[in-house]
Amino acid sequence: MQRENKDLAAYRESEEYKRLKELRRKRRRKQVMIARTCVFGGAALIILVLVLLINALVSGLKGKETIAKPDNDLLKKEEKYMVIEKKPNIDVQLLTPNDYSRPGITTETIENIVVHYTANPGTTAKQNRDFFESLKDTHATSVSSHFVVGLEGEIIQCIPTAERAYASNQRNFNTVSIECCHMDETGKFNDSTYNSVVELCAWLCCKFNLQAEDVIRHYDVTGKACPKYFVDNQGEWDKFIQDVADYISANAVEMTKEERDAYYGESETVTSAPEATNLMEE
Length: 282
Known about the structure:
The protein is of the alpha/beta class. The protein has nine helices and eight strands. The chain has helices spanning about 1-10, 15-70, 70-80, 125-140, 190-205, 220, 230, 235-250, 255-265, and strands spanning about 80-85, 90, 110-115, 145-150, 155, 175-180, 215, 250-255.
């Protein structure tokens, strides 16, 4: 036993033992370093991923906020309106306020321009305007129009567009109406009438920020054959709408809302008629 202890002690003093001991110590140190590196490296990687995720989330929220709350000043600068600076030659002959042709009821936001025909072949714009005026005395019916376009292309305004006319039935409250004169029973407009109606429709479209497609027929409201020629000939109506669009394209200029409002000025005066009844042309 003593011999074995002496041999063990001698071995521990040998160079071989010391060399092996040093190798084991270095191996343990290396293992510890690797373990520490893995721990700290993994933690650093996790932190980096978290930071990137947080940044991505914050950027996404900022992006959504930018979309949800655009720069109002920038939008205002980019907002454009089409305006025809050359106003049609309109002869303003407003009707006397009365319950049967000019009730004085305010229009709401204008959504359509409605084209009609007078169904009185050969009559003039003035004659049709005066018929509307006579209703204040005769009470024969309830009918009127904002504008009447005559056989020579003359345009008479009977009612301010800020007031309702009795022309388009259930759509009186948000439309502007145009009665058109014609020579015969076909209801076809001559060239002078046609050109003035195109010009007037285009100008009104720009005034109320509408498109040519927003010009409609009385027929499109109620199914009534009015204007007759354009109901009987759909292709001619399509051509008319295209002519309105072409007129706008050729004559309109872009303006900002502020410029447009300044150009058109204040709304037309509305004559108050508290007792007016909301009658509709049949």
